[in-house]
Amino acid sequence: MASTHIPAQASEQAKSLKDYVASFHRRRKLMVSTSVGLLSVTLALAFLWPPTYKSTATILIEEQEIPSDLVRSTITSYADQRIEIIKQQVMSRTTLWKVVEQFNLYEDLRRNSPAEEIVRRFVKDIEVEVISADVVDKRTQHATKATIAFTVAYQNRSPELAQKVANELTSLFLGENLKSRERQAQEASSFLQQEADNLARHIGEIDEKIASFKQRASGALPELTPLNQQLMNQAERELMDVDQQMRSLEERKTYLEGELATIKPNTPIVSVTGERILDSADRLRALRAEYAGAAANLSSDHPDIIKMKQEMDALEKETGQLPDEAETIKRLTDARAVLAADLERLGQEHPDIIQLRRKVAGLEEEVQRVKAGPSRKTELRPENPAYINLQAQLNSATASLEALRKTRVDLKRRLQEYATRLERAPEIEPEYLVLTRDRDTSGQKYQDIRSRLLEAKVSEGLEVQRKGERFSLIDPPSLPEKPFKPNRLAIVLLGFILAVGGGIGAGATAESLDHSIRTPEQIVALTQHFPLAVVPFMPNEGDFSRVRLRRRIFQSAGIGAVATILLFLHVFVVPLDVLWFTALRRFGME
Amino acid sequence: MDRIRTALKLYKDLKDTSSTSSRGEGTKRTASHSVPPPITYTRTRSLHIPVSVLRGHRVMASYQKGPFVDAYKILRTQVTHRLRENGWNVLGVTSPGYGEGKTLTAVNLAVSLAMETTQTVLLVDSDLQDPSVHKVFGLQDCLGLADYLLDDQPVEDLLLHPGIGRFVLLPGGRAISNSTEILTSPKMVALVEELKHRYPSRVVIFDLPPLLHTADVLAFAPYTDALLMVVEEGRTTADELQRALGLVKNSRPVLGTVLNKAGRSSLTLADMKAMLSQ
Fold this sequence. Notes:
By secondary structure, chain A is an alpha+beta fold. Chain A is built from 17 helices and seven strands.
């Protein structure tokens, strides 16, 4: 109501119900017309808003068929994450534009809007919703939300088009999923393959390095240290053994030589007469001794001498034994000693002395001859069995000794070598360790990657054979029969509420904007006096007929307008009976 | 309706005592002698106005009973009471704006006053820019105040008696533009003086133009004893009323206000029919 410039009075503060009724009565025309206007607008909206149809496909996310304990997929991302990725791939501009062109969507829009706008519109009409269920995580025992399915929906004015496009989108989603899974699995295995190859090459290089290193190290490898030590110990033991053997052989040899010295190589042959038959060598020696004595006494032309000489030559030829120089010198020395002793005693002229002198001279000559002659030694083959036995033993001892000596040298050398190896081992150890460590780690890694590669191959097989987690279309997009938009009933209901609210609001606004005086109380508030009189409005005939005329005009105009609209509708838009049944169907009252 | 009833009671009481208190200063007549003999207007032109015309212009005299008639009777009583209290007899009827019912209130107040046997009433249409009182009585253009002031027509020739009690009407005459100057001219002042004192028991009512739109009221107010402010329900705003009251606050006392056209917005066709049949 009108505000007053004088402080509010009790009558102003408390507006009674009567005042409200009066206000309502006063504003009824405005309120009714506003309400009717709003209602007709919303009703028109509810009926004329073209229907939009929505076709929806439900795609189930199936878990992989082979238990994940047996074969683990290389694709580990969450389902909804994957759906989102696929959504992005599917909803790329090029893909969508292809679909738009294929189905000739948004024909009017395409005439004068850029492609971007149309794609944006298309995206707006596509709905991808994830359906999740409450599940208990097997590992953590916590209740979580798991994505079990998702829906792909498309809305369009035409139900057929909505279904077709929804179908296309669904197949795009399914195809993209398969492609991406396969690609992912293949990428994983090819990556691992590449890594494995790289590692194998690396290992080969290291192996080569190690081999050459080993060659260079020539047995001084740290890992061979115990072996070298062992070998060295063994060699030392062998050396000691050999020394021992040599000593004993030495002793034995000495002994055998002694033994051998006491035994004549030739066994004397005793004749029947008991006379010892000399063997050729003894005979030669005897002859030589005899010859020396005889040569002192006899001249060289003496037939005995000649005979002896001939016999000696024959024997020498036989035995091959040339007159022994030492023996001759011994005899010469012996002869000289005898000569010297006898010379003192017998004097110069004694025949013995002369004889002795001759003997000495002869021996000297002999010595000269022997010395000058070829030192040909003719070995007499021993024939005494004992001698031969001993000699054989001696020979073998000597040979053994010789062999042992050689062995010893060899052992010494080996020992030296082992020692050198042991000394060098710490020197080369660090480098070797680096190499082996590299080899070990690379080897381990290689093993690891190999096993993973195998797993990835299996997983790839899983994906290629479509045995992994997959999307299966459980509810293909159907032909929508009822429009999903608009909710006409809701619009009408809202329209009613809006109409009532708008009417009341308009009335209230008009009332609050109207500052005119309405009641005597307002005048009292302004002037402190009650008006002298409150004159009611007195209508005259003119007022009455005007109001009546106006009312009639409004009534007939309203009826006429409704009739005209219905007529137009019937003639130009849709026959009324059809409209009636359509309306019934749209509101679901069939 | 209580209001009206009390007002009616008050009115009756006043009616009983009015004769004693009236014109106390001048004559010493008793109540029984206070009723003057019926006047026969010899010089004044008498008119016979058909009831349909009066009804068409909502003149209360055309109705026998009803809240409309009662309201004017209450107004009459209130006004007489106040006028006598102060010894006034010149009343200006105005309102803040156009079309709020000044003329109708002036006419009906005059008519209801004239219906009192003791009272003589002169209604002067001083809204010279748009004189309209004569139209209420179904008269075509006629000579009036303007003709007196400008063309020296004798007042006696201008007065009209519409045949209701002792009600004499001075029409406005032709419309003139410089009404403010004319209204404050010495001739007009002299006329007011003359009218005021010609008959002791006469009430002179001036129908004035709107207060907020012309200077006429402000200029003319000093020659009246008091002003009656007409307020139209649902049209005159509180602001307008306040401004109007503020304008005349220092020049002339405001006798009071009349809330006109009450209940118009809630009037239905059936109500109208009922009221018309009264």
